[in-house]
Amino acid sequence: xxxxxxxxxxxxxxxxxxxxxxxxxxxxxxxxxxxxxxxxxxxxxxxxxxxxxxxxxxxxxxxxxxxxxxxxxxxxxxxxxxxxxxxxxxxxxxxxxxxxxxxxxxxxxxxxxxxxxxxxxxxxxxxxxxxxxxxxxxxxxxxxxxxxxxxxxxxxxxxxxxxxxxxxxxxxxxxxxxxxxxxxxxxxxxxxxxxxxxxxxxxxxxxxxxxxxxxxxxxxxxxxxxxxxxxxxxxxxxxxxxxxxxxxxxxxxxxxxxxxxxxxxxxxxxxxxxxxxxxxxxxxxxxxxxxxxxxxxxxxxxxxxxxxxxxxxxxxxxxxxxxxxxxxxxxxxxxxxxxxxxxxxxxxxxxxxxxxxxxxxxxxxxxxxxxxxxxxxxxxxxxxxxxxxxxxxxxxxxxxxxxxxxxxxxxxxxxxxxxxxxxxxxxxxxxxxxxxxxxxxxxxxxxxxxxxxxxxxxxxxxxxxxxxxxxxx
Length: 473
Hints:
It is a single chain. This protein is of the alpha/beta class. It contains 13 helices and 19 strands. The strands form 5 sheets. A 6-stranded mixed sheet has the order 2-3-1-4-7-8, with helices on both faces. It has a 6-stranded mixed sheet with strand order 10-11-9-12-13-14, with helices on both faces. A 3-stranded mixed sheet has the order 17-18-19. Helix 2 packs parallel to helix 3 (113-124), helix 8 packs parallel to helix 9 (301-312) and helix 12 packs across helix 13.
């Protein structure tokens, strides 16, 4: 399967990025997630245009705890130095990690100092491929062009040097189709998809993700058994992840590195707030994600955020607690720590946890075998008879509740796919099947078969009544 392109929205606040993001995603994405026990910003979403699937990312708030305010607690003004620095950091990350950039500006304010800075970064750091095309492609969208008078005012944006500005209204949807058509044309997506799909790759793809300085690079180097020289081509940013390949017990492994691709102390701290972009890109390619956590700091908001990305992509997960050598321990320390982690990650409490030290090498050799076991769980398929036995037992222990006076009837179920394991349940009316009862069924499935480290999906569908043809007299 071809990797979905990652399209980043870049621009200063109040130009309409969130409105455009919601329109591209096809829904209004709220802060509260559909997984109980989690609340996080939805900063990425799957989108589709002309039959092509892609991932759209709003770079305006990669870190949900981050607010663009000055030292006095006041919002940064459009022309302030700190404000422009914030926007530049977004642009620097997007130019490295995105496959296409939608640069959003505002016709009401015209070209602002922040727009100039972003335009310079995007233009100066594009690279030219063998076809003479500049990558990643940048599409300049001028928002709030609701009428002809405003559309006539877009010509000043040619001064940004990023080609033709496209007038749009994210609020009303006008012109959005034009920038999406331009996006597909600039990506040459059909050619890329055919090329990627033609290459067979049976390796297990493992992404190493987590917040900066958790020890991801050190773990990778321990697994590979050698140090790697990693150099950034742009000051203060990272570059595309470099894959590493190993063979373990005859199984080919692809390690997708998202870690440490800059020299320590050489990056402005603010840039790290946007490191989730590269984690998201790696997760979308992976079968199994290693979520690396710093044992000294425990799970942070950014760790939870990345865990949410992994779950949204239905990837299998292993939590790797690094720097375990730095923790004072007694007989119960590991069990206590494990309970704390699973309590915080209660929306993915099926994950295995490995306590390691990249510094000493302690238990690092358990990571790849555990990843292979978790990948095997992704491929498990339960028979229809097994699924229906689970459903019968679940209904006997806890009958489906009624909704608005209607009783839910569950007829039968079956597993329809793997990677991730997906179950389809046929009922009389899916609308009266409450989410909590679906979660109950999922828990019963895990009691019968744990699917260690692997998310499972439980879907419902109405069973159609078969109309028999009348007998011929």
